[in-house]
Design brief:
Shape: elongated
Helix content: over 70%
Number of helices: 4
Largest sheet: none
Radius of gyration: 42 Å
Order of helices and strands: HHHH
Distance between the termini: 123 Å
Strand content: under 5%
Structural class: mainly alpha
Length: 126
């Protein structure tokens, strides 16, 4: 019997809400226009939030899927995990450095070199 009393309370609550809604809809025409425009504003905001959420979830799932595809048995990741490529890079860099050092030369400008025997003319202030 307790279930029936809850059922009647629920029925009376729903019927009261329906009556209030119908009274609000039938009360006046300007308020109806206002409620329709506010409903459209809510729909627009919910639509924008939904699109943003859809985009965010899509980016998140793409990122998760891409990380799962990076398997530890993948030869590319195995190559990166080893130190062999670090050693090869270091050897290549040292070889390039030595090669560039050998190619480097210094040109001497005779006019720009200090000449201790030559006097620089000075302007005497009066």
């Amino acid at each position: 019997m307790l279930v029936l009393s809850n059922d009647t309370a629920l029925n009376s609550l729903l019927s009261k809400l329906l009556q209030d809604y119908l009274e609000q809809m039938n009360s006046s025409a300007p308020s109806q226009v206002k409620s329709v425009s506010s409903n459209l504003e809510i729909v627009y905001v919910l639509l924008m939030i939904g699109l943003f959420g859809f985009f965010t979830v899509g980016v998140m799932l793409t990122n998760i899927r891409a990380r799962r595809l990076e398997d530890s048995r993948d030869p590319y990741n195995t190559y990166i995990a080893t130190d062999i490529w670090h050693k090869k890079d270091r050897e290549y860099f040292q070889a390039k450095l030595i090669e560039n050092y050998k190619l480097c030369c210094v040109f001497e400008n005779q006019l720009a070199v200090e000449q201790p025997n030559t006097q620089i003319p000075e302007v005497k202030s009066s």
